[in-house]
Amino acid sequence: MLTLRPAEPQDTPLILAYVRELALYEQTPELAIASEADMRKAIFGPRPLAWAIMAEWEGRPAGFALWFYVFSTWEGKPGLYLEDLFVRPEFRGHGIGKALLKRVAAIALEQGCSRYQWSVLDWNQPSIDFYESQGARVMREWLLCRVEGEALVRLAQNGG
Questions:
Q1: Among residues 18, 81, 116, 131, which one is catalytic?
Q2: For a Cys staple, 63 with which of 21, 55, 56, 143, CB 3.0–4.6 Å?
């Protein structure tokens, strides 16, 4: 039996474990450097930057979804960005990922969001197939841009 519930502060170590398991699956474990304090502040601090739902299968920790809000200037409405959706391998095939995706979609509607979006690695065909089966359109015409680390510092200070 599946249970979905809002994350609570005591879930912080488990959320961090899921993030690290996801980073390992995505072949970049060295990039998952967030600390427990970072996560606790971001999700449960006085000004939350992200929200999460925990999934339990028969009372055992099975996965989670974590999101934050964005804004569409074209629509003048918020959007919801799903940062992470993760189900531990031993719990896959029970509809947990679909239930998490569906619950976060309901939250997007409850919050007046005009869109629900996320990114998927181009080599992750099982996830692409799953998302498309749920009605997602993979927007291959858009490319993600990112500035981080020293490049972010240089851009902020010198314009590149």
A1: 131
A2: 55
Q: Quick one: tokens of 94?
A: 């029970």
pLDDT single digits (tens) 70-82: 999 999 999 999 9
Active site residue 25: no
Residue 112 is given by DSSP the state T
d(CA 103, CA 106): 5
What is residue 160's predicted lDDT score, i.e. its pLDDT? Answer: 65
Q: 2-118 adopts what CATH topology? A: Aminopeptidase (3.40.630)
Does position 115 have pLDDT exceeding 70, yes or no? Answer: yes
At 143 the pLDDT is 87
Task: Assign 3-class secondary structure to 120-159.
Answer: CCCCCHHHHHHHHHCCCCCCCCCCCCCCCHHHHHHHHHHC
The DSSP H or E segment spanning 71 is strand 60-72
User: CA-to-CA distance for 82 and 104, rounded, in angstroms?
Assistant: 8
Give the Cα separation of 104 and 110 in Å (integer). Answer: 10
Domain ranges of the chain: 2-118
